[in-house]
Amino acid sequence: MSGIPRSPAPGDRPAQPPSLATLQQLRTQLGTALSPHQALALFAVEGPVCTLLVSDSDTSAPVLHHLPLGLQSLTQRSFQQRMPTPAQLETGIMEVEDAVMPLARLLPAHTLLATRDPLLRHLALQAVGGHAPGEVPAITREAIEALFERLVAQSSRHYSHQDPDLPPDPRAAAALLVLREILHHWQCTHLWLLPDSLDAAP
Q: What's the whole-model pTM score?
């Protein structure tokens, strides 16, 4: 899994949230997948902490939420900066659950969850074999769960076999764990992959 996007270091400045105009363009890119008054949530793991930007409609100002969780802290506390063992994955699950569950009640019903985060986009595409399934790819929760289960299985084998589709480092493994948990606890059936710039193709 070469060429995996770099997650920013702890001291990196977090990316600026998109403007209302940019969000309106992103909503347009989603086309009929998103109705005019449906909430859009953009999730990212870049920067010191994970962020969730929620736009209730195509005209409302977005609200930015900072999660009490970052990839660096997760890999340090739960994984000890190494690829996780089964027990460390269980510890990581509990840590992530504590961070993401309170936000579930802040998401409007039928929110569409999307990301522009390069690392999350890369992991999500690996879950479907690296091939974008559409103009604006939508990756199912089941596909992410299946990739996570492969990570669990590999951890149980003490890394005797490196699955080429799995995260090659603890930060990417932490990102997959976080993605799996938010899809479950926020009751999202899909993750929509938006380009990280408006000029880029998905």
A: 0.86
